[in-house]
Each structure stands twice: as structure tokens, then as C-alpha cells.
Amino acid sequence: MGDNLFKVLITSAKAKVTPLVTKIKLWTSWNFIRTRLITRIRDFFTSLFNVRPRHKKDYYEMFGWLVSRRLAIALMVAVGVFSLYYLFSVHSILPSAKTEGVKTYDYDSILLRFAKEKVRILGKSGYLAYEGQVENGSVTGYGTLYNPQGVVVYQGNFDKNQYQGSGTRYYDSGITMYVGEFEQNLFHGSGKLYRESGSLAYDGEFSLGKREGEGRLYDSGGNLIYTGSFAHDALLYSALLGKKVSEVSEAYKGTRTLYEGGQDFVVVLEDIGAMYLGAAETDTLNGERTVEQVLVLQDSFQGGGVVCTDIPELREYFGTEDYAGNASVTLLEAVAVGRAVSRGTGIGFRREVEMEVTSEYEDYYQVEGYDENYTVYLYSFHKDGLIYNFVCQNKEEGFSFYTIEPM
């Protein structure tokens, strides 16, 4: 009897509680909440878009037109909703992810403008474009820049989205291009420049992307060949003038060939495309030989950042020539003509200068005589205390090489 009474009480309690539990479950279910929200939003917009005004106060007067207040409010709400959607979906106002404690942003994220920490930035197509420090919306501090293929482009210090300070620049292949100092994305200061093969090409000073100042050249095997001065990204050949032969030998470690004739001699500096004429000093006790004239084996001239490849361009750079006309070749020029013809680089030169030489070694020639009646056409200019002679075969033709000497 007692058990039956207890069961009846339990059953009655369940009958009272079950509807309440059912309602709580219904009210707290996501489907119910979503349905109610959608219904309320639909009712709101249905009411909002009910643009049948009944009184004059239901209108706004704009430029002589009466515009429904509800319609105006609806348009403003629509614009606001669209703007929020645009900010969240298109411009990624929120970080897209957080990996290993480092936030990741799209490149055009608004919050990126306020970040001041180490972040990851995704490029337009979604690839990892940058990982490192940012400040006030710009890449500032230490970081790594990648190309769309995932290869490191630059690693080092940045300032306001530019390479600034010390860093490393890479070729598209991933091989190191340059290690050193930067300014405004350009090589500037001390640095090392590498070939894409990986061998060291230059070690020294740079100025706004160009070799400028003292530096060292290396061959393709990474062997030191020359230590000297550079200007506007080119070797400053005029710096050799007046140097003692022993000083040049110390500066140049590459392959050389010697032509000796009487008191004069010519040394070919094979690896830097130059030659020089040396002669004994008559007013020195030890007879130390010095560089009197330098010949550059190039058919283009670079000075002050300007490259000249023909006579009109030379006139534009130097001004009117001091001399233009035929001249007999010197020993220095005779050797240069022979080199130009044999290598096919002599513009207009069809034959070498006949030369009588004897040789006991591969890199040494004793010049017994040469054809001094062999003529060339010279254009002479002067600038900054130096004389430049551009050597051609014929008038108004392009030059094959040029010499530099003090005035």
C-alpha cells in the first residue's frame, strides 16, 4: 500500500515538472533561438519597409520631395549592415588566425594598423608574405619577407615597410644575393655581393644600391683579384694613376701579362679589363716605376653615373673635344689593338699592329719593335685634371677602348 502511494506521488510530480522541463529545453535549443531571432528580424524589417505613411509627420522633405521616414531609416540600416559585412568579410577586421602565439592578419586588415608585435601577414592570394615585427600599421623591426612561391626575399631590419639597417637579400632561387647594410631598400654602407652561383663577387662599400668607395673584387671561384676604389658601381681605373708598380701588384692579385719595350713596359690586368703603362722615375734614387697611363679595354665609358657608348654621348658628358684626328699608336695602344682584334671586340679594327716580340714565358713578352706607322683616330677630352683619349679606327665610329692620364 505504501509503495503504491509513493509511485502515485512520483507520477504526479513528473506530470507537473515534465512540461516545464520541455519548455526549458525548447527555449534553450539553438533551433528555437535561431527561429525566434529570424522571426523577430523579419517582423522588424517587414514593419520597417511598410512604407505606407498615414500622416505628414511620416515624411522627410528633401529637395522638394517627400521621403518616407520608414524608408529612409530602412536604407540607413541596410547601409550599416552592408558596411559591417564589408569590414568583417572583405577587409578582415579581425585576425584570421593565431598560430603558436603569433597573430596572423590579411595584408589589408584594419587591426593590423594598430598591431605592435610580432605577426604574420598574408598576401593578396593568401600566401605568407611576411613574418616579423610591425608598428603602427607598417613593417618596422626585424622580420622575414617571402615571395608567393614561399622563397625568402629578404631577412633583416625594416623601417616603415622598407629595408633599413642590416639584412640579407636573396635571389628568386633562394641563393644569397647580398649581406650587409641597407637604406630605403638599397644596398648602402658595408656589404657583400654574391653571384647567383653562390660565389662572392664584391666585398666593400655601397651607396644607394651602387658600389661606391673602397672594395674588393673576387673571381667566379671566390678568389680575391683586386682591392681598390669604386665609383657609381664601376671600378675607378683613374685611381691607379701615379701608384707605384709595387702598390699595384699588392692591389691586383689576378692574372697579368707583361710587355716590355725599352724603358717602357705595359702590364695587362686580365681580370679587370685594364692595362697600364709604366716608366722609371727619372728623379728618384731607387728608380721606382710608377703608373703613367691607364687603358680601359671597354667600348663604353662610365663617369658620374653616366654611360657613354658613342662620340655624341661623350661630347654631351665632357663638352667639346680638345683634339680629334689621326695619331700613331703608342706601345700601350698597340697591345690593346691586338687584344681587341683577336677577341673580336675592336670596333672597326681589321688587323693587329705588327709587333716583333720574343717570349720566354707565357705571361712575359720582350717587344723588339712594332709598327709605329699604324694610325688610329683619337678623340681627346679633359675633366677633373685628367685627359681621356678614346681610340677609334675611323672618324665618328664607336671607340674600342680609352686611355686615362694626368693633364
In words, what does this structure look like?
The chain is an alpha+beta fold and 407 residues long. The chain folds into four domains: 1-47, no CATH class; 49-90, no CATH class; 97-231, Histone H3 K4-specific methyltransferase SET7/9 N-terminal domain (Single Sheet), CATH 2.20.110; 240-406, no CATH class. 24% of the residues lie in helices and 43% in strands. It has helices at residues 2-28, 30-48, 69-90, 245-251, 311-318, 331-343; strands at residues 59-62, 65-68, 97-99, 102-106, 118-122, 128-135, 138-146, 152-159, 162-170, 176-183, 186-194, 200-207, 210-218, 224-231, 234-235, 256-261, 264-269, 274-280, 289-296, 301-303, 306-308, 323-328, 355-361, 364-370, 375-383, 386-392, 401-406. It starts with a helix and ends with a strand. The model is unreliable at 89-96 (pLDDT under 50).
Could you give a short description of this structure?
With 407 residues, the protein is an alpha+beta fold.
List strands and helices in order, with pairings:
Elements: H1 2-28, H2 30-48, E1 59-62, E2 65-68, H3 69-90, E3 97-99, E4 102-106, E5 118-122, E6 128-135, E7 138-146, E8 152-159, E9 162-170, E10 176-183, E11 186-194, E12 200-207, E13 210-218, E14 224-231, E15 234-235, H4 245-251, E16 256-261, E17 264-269, E18 274-280, E19 289-296, E20 301-303, E21 306-308, H5 311-318, E22 323-328, H6 331-343, E23 355-361, E24 364-370, E25 375-383, E26 386-392, E27 401-406
Parallel strand pairs: 4-5, 16-24
Antiparallel strand pairs: 1-2, 3-4, 5-6, 6-7, 7-8, 8-9, 9-10, 10-11, 11-12, 12-13, 13-14, 14-15, 16-17, 17-18, 18-19, 19-27, 20-21, 22-25, 23-24, 25-26, 26-27
